[in-house]
Amino acid sequence: MIRPKKHLGQHFLHDENIARKIIASIPREPRLVLEIGPGTGVLSKYLLEDDTLDPWFIEVDREAAEYLPVKFPQIRHRLIQADFLKYQLGSFPGEERSLEPMTILGNFPYNISSQILFKAVGSRERVRCIVGMFQKEVAERITQQPGNKTYGILSVILQAFYNTEYLFTVSESVFSPPPKVKSAVIRLTRNTRNTLGCDELFFFRVVKTAFNQRRKTLHNALKPITADIRDEAGLPFLKSRAEQLSVEDFIRLTKEIEQRQPGLIANE
Length: 268
Fold this sequence. Notes:
alpha/beta; Rossmann fold; Helicase, Ruva Protein, domain 3; 2 domains; seven-stranded mixed β-sheet; two-stranded antiparallel sheet; 11 helices; elongated
């Protein structure tokens, strides 16, 4: 039995106490759980032992996909060998359950963790919760509140649809091979916001444009969007910097820009 090697920037967790703590952080509703990149199965083992959960697993690495069913025979019919970023969540785990709410779990490869989150946001009506291990800096950025320098694009876009919680910090020593940075486990739980009340793609554009030049006031940072609007003095928050605005502030700002220059949406 060949133990899978590190892949896609992933560092394998080997501390059993941390693994149990992560599994304890998963809500028991919804029961359906999809673990991304189980690797050597340190989290999978405890998922499979929990009768209150209905665990499934998706693994892109061939060696890991071959290793897991040998180590955990009960995983065989619950394992999908595929790239999560290319996988159609609408087909999981079958047509009869394609609308069932679920939790996403993982010790996420650090170099694609943001992409995993954005994909989850795209399926947010199904993905009710996300519990995952991230690079500590990214975890802080996701869970940070307005007024802090680490508050940014990830904070706003994810907090628009999820309540975010920083659960605990994880030392480098509990991984093999150990990463050069600390890690953290966070939990994202779907909030009650069903719609932004504005064009969603344009909202993302406003947020990204605002933070791309975060040291500038929004009056200057948003010029690529607001340059053709003459009555800029009437727009809210233009004297503020992006990090000072809450999700609700960004929604209000997006609505104001939409109303003043609807052609921007048509040209998206």
